[in-house]
Amino acid sequence: MEEKNTFLGYRAGRNNLDGTKLTFLGYEAGYNTTGGFWNTFIGYQAGYSNSNAGQSTFLGYQAGYRNTTGGANLFLGHQAGYSNTAGGSNVFLGPLAGYNHSTGSFNIFLGESAGLNNLTGAYNTFLGTRAGYNATGTGNVFLGYHAGYNENLSNKLYLDNSSTSSPLIYGDFFLNTLTFNGSVNVTGSLTKGSGTFVQPHPADPSKEVAYAFFEGPEHAIFLRGKAKLVKGRATITTPEYFRVVAGKDEDITVQFTSRSIDTFGVAAVQVTKDAIEVRELKGGKNSYEFDYFITAKRGGFEGHQPIQLNTHFTANNKTAEDFEQTYAKTDDLTITALRQLLIANGILTSDGKLNQTTAAKLGWQVRPVQVATTEPKGAMTKEDE
Asked: CATH number of the domain at 220-297, please?
């Protein structure tokens, strides 16, 4: 095998036997390399312990120092990936990034000391100074300064600029849940399958109270309160916050509940977004309190149509497996209800599989399953030997 190697520096590549296409630059860079291919080690003792791994680039003081068989790694920074031995296809960028990492693969640690104590985790992405510093799990995504600093579980999402265990955005990839620990502003529209508000139970610490949202086929607003008839007459003047949001007067409806049994009832004789004129029926002249509930369509949204083209429950440009997994059997009420509706309209079969006949009829392009491979791109071929 033709070596095609470049070694520059005191004892750089000293023990190489049959490694090829190697570039070692620096004091004892690649010192113990015996084989391997397509490695570039630049820096004092960079890749010092590498034996026969290939396709790696180590740049920095003792970057990848203990790496022996881990291949297709990119370590850039002072002692980045220092303790990695057999982990492959990792990217560690920054001083001490992935310093104690040893055998896990397919990780990306970017930032000073990012993932420093993650020893065997795989498929992690840590971005930020000391992000995932003590994290031990797999499949995590931590974004921000100290994000996920002490997380020891897997498949979690952290977005924050501190080591808090309650980050601004927290997610669970396994459960498909997302938590916002703060207020959320949405400029555009927000679509949901169902919804609740949740609050602590005021008397039982083992419970919480969950109310379902009040929903309807229109963008409605309401105003409720109490008023009083005086000699059979009353005027309800609406507040500014109702007037400036309400739409057309003809879309306003009013309901009354009398607080007296000695009455003929009341009627709304004139209804506008500014005021409601109320009179007792049959010309009554009684005086008593009553409740009112006023509903209007929100101005500018009167044209909302509740029946729309399906854009949310489609397998177009998805794999059948991914679509089916979204609506797999679960204890979640929302997913269960949606699953039953999709079975009823023919998108899913009775056993929860994507109905290929329906998909074809609707013109969906269902993607084939692509099997993931751990084979790094650019593996050496016979032509390279």
From this structure: 2.60.40
Task: Give per-residue burial for 298-308: e unless 16+ CB within 10 Å, then b.
Answer: ebeeeeeeeee
Largest Cα–Cα separation, the chain: 110
Q: What contacts 243, CB < 8 A, 6 or more positions away?
A: 273, 274
- Positive or negative: CA dihedral 380, 381, 383, 385: positive
Sign of CA dihedral 40, 45, 50, 56: negative
Structure tokens at 294: 């006023």
Domain residue ranges in the chain? 220-297, 310-385
pLDDT of residue 372: 57
Residues 6+ apart with CB under 8 A from 173: 139, 141, 155, 156, 157
Mean pLDDT, the chain, rounded, equals: 93
Residue 227 has φ and ψ, to the nearest 5°, of: -145, 175
- Cα dihedral 157→162→168→170 (10° resolution): 20
pTM exceeding 0.90: no
Q: How far apart are CA 37 and CA 65, in angstroms?
A: 17
Residue 384 is predicted with a pLDDT of: 47
Q: 249: which DSSP letter?
A: G
For residue 366, what are the CA distances in angstroms to 170, 317, 340, 344, 356? 31, 5, 21, 20, 9
- Digit-coded pLDDT (tens) for 338-374: 999 999 999 999 999 999 999 999 999 999 987 655 5
